[in-house]
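Tokens for chain A. Residues wanted.
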């Protein structure tokens, strides 16, 4: 798993309105001075969130919705890397939403990012129909019957379909994005049929898919997919993305995504 170097101290002095709670750290995202508050011993973002923020097609002025924003990592990266307009992070867990809001303030991004605490199943009540140009989602990977449930609620909700299902998410997105708008997701290969079936069921036509492999000659452990609401049929399979190269070092593409090389 990739990680960013840990740093804290001067950032708190620079922004006295932002505070840390017990078991929290500030992590340096090593890009344009962006920082993120996370649990030291709890749910922390992974490479999947970073890859999704890089993969999603984001146009100048886009209104973007991140479903299950967690720490707020995806809105913060999108704000830093793109010319998106307003970005909304929706998070059902009050504690996580409050922490994400502090990260937004830490980066002085209140004019571009809004964190909303609530349930995607009530998305129409919060935002109204056809509001966003793009929705992104790094959903829980385990369905209700799959995997071992973690005793820590924050981790359990992030990893298992406890508060909402994959269908809940895609169904809501089909109503929240504008006609011609996009939905970008990251998921595990064993759920690929579920994802593609549900996207088409709710009139979001899969247009691009990319498989993420730990290294060459290893099976993919993630895939990225983007669909268009009301789009024509036609799915493009993109070149695979390798996290490590054959020598066991991070691939050039991963280093570029993480801004280690230009």
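Reply:
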């Amino acid at each position: 798993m990739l990680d960013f170097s840990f740093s804290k101290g001067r950032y708190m002095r620079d922004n006295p309105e932002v505070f840390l709670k017990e078991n929290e750290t500030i992590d340096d995202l090593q890009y344009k001075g962006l920082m993120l508050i996370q649990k030291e011993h709890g749910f922390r973002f992974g490479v999947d969130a970073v890859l999704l923020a890089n993969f999603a097609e984001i146009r100048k002025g886009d209104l973007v919705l991140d479903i299950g924003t967690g720490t707020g990592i995806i809105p913060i990266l999108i704000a830093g890397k793109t010319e998106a307009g307003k970005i909304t992070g929706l998070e059902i867990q009050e504690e996580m939403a409050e922490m994400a809001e502090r990260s937004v303030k830490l980066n002085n991004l209140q004019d571009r990012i809004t964190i909303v605490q609530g349930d995607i199943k009530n998305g129409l009540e919060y935002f109204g129909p056809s509001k966003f140009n793009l929705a992104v989602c790094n959903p829980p990977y385990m369905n209700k019957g799959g995997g071992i449930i973690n005793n820590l609620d924050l981790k359990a909700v992030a990893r298992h379909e406890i508060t909402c299902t994959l269908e809940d998410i895609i169904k809501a997105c089909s109503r929240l994005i504008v006609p011609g708008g996009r939905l970008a997701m990251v998921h595990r290969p064993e759920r690929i049929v579920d994802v593609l079936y549900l996207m088409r069921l709710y009139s979001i036509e899969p247009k691009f898919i990319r498989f993420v492999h730990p290294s060459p000659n290893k099976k993919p452990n993630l895939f990225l997919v983007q669909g268009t609401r009301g789009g024509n049929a036609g799915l493009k399979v993109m070149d695979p993305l390798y996290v490590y190269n054959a020598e066991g070092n991070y691939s050039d593409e991963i280093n570029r995504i993480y801004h280690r090389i230009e």
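Residues 144 and 161 are 5 Å apart (CA to CA). The chain is about 30% helix and 25% strand.
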